[in-house]
From TrEMBL, chains A, B:
The keyword DNA-binding applies. It comes from Labedaea rhizosphaerae. Coiled coil: none annotated. Residues 14-86 form the Transcription regulator PadR N-terminal domain. It holds the Pfam family PadR. GO terms for molecular function: DNA binding. Keywords: DNA-binding. This is DNA-binding PadR family transcriptional regulator. InterPro entries: Tscrpt_reg_PadR_N, WH-like_DNA-bd_sf, WH_DNA-bd_sf. The keyword Ion transport does not apply.
Length: 112, 112
DNA sequence: TCTCCATATGTAGCCGAACTACATGTAGGT
DNA sequence: ACCTACATGTAGTTCGGCTACATATGGAGA
């Protein structure tokens, strides 16, 4: 997977991962690996800043917890985040429809 | 459509547009509008440099032509470009499969 | 014990592709 | 004369994801 492919779609991935369950950053990375069938292996330097950005935007909220002596910052969707996720899903559908329309299934016939 | 969404997928779009027909830049932009159902309206500042980049990479080749007093640089796929297009189509399928796997159809059930 | 790995979070700085804005010129319609 | 469509192109900005690094705990194994 070329690195730039995710540009503009990362927010949707993070929001979707938090849909239905609050997770901490490291667990989000693992969840993305699993749900993508191993295709997505995001570095921490990508995920953690993105989560802070989403928090600044009010789409997620976080709380600290200590589990087994380890510090965890657990993120959950806010109501604004849920709305944003719905928008992201729609945008994703429109985006893939547009690209699929161009990529089609092969060469286009020369118009008669 | 948020601007960054195209990141990393533009090459595939351009190559696919040239698959089966040689076109000049302006016509490529119009073809992308049509085939995407109006969703893609790429500025010339995006398309022309991208075509030059593809030409530098040997994926397309161009020839000048004069049509109705207007200069046109017509691009066509090279054999390397055809191979690259096949790769791009595969990458696109893998990419959408990965993202769809994460976005799913809604909230994920808590594992029992 | 010491080392290594998995777990867990985070920052600084770079890279580069797509965008904005601009510049240039022809043809045709009003 | 003016505007729009056609047609190509460059300069510079933007900014999000990446690389690389820094930090710290717990557990397994040599």
């Amino acid at each position: 997977m070329k690195p730039d492919a995710l540009r503009g779609h990362l927010d949707a991935l993070l929001l979707a991962t938090l849909d239905g369950a609050a997770l901490h950053g490291y667990a989000i990375i693992e969840a993305l690996q699993q749900r993508s069938g191993g295709a997505l292996d995001l570095p921490t330097g990508t995920v953690y800043p993105a989560l802070r950005r989403l928090e600044r935007g009010g789409l997620v909220a976080s709380e600290w917890a200590t589990v087994g002596g380890r510090q965890r910052r657990t993120y959950r969707l806010t109501s604004a985040g849920r709305k944003a996720l719905a928008g992201e899903r729609t945008a994703w559908r429109e985006f893939t429809t547009a690209i699929d329309g161009v990529l089609g299934g092969g060469p286009w016939p020369t118009p008669a």
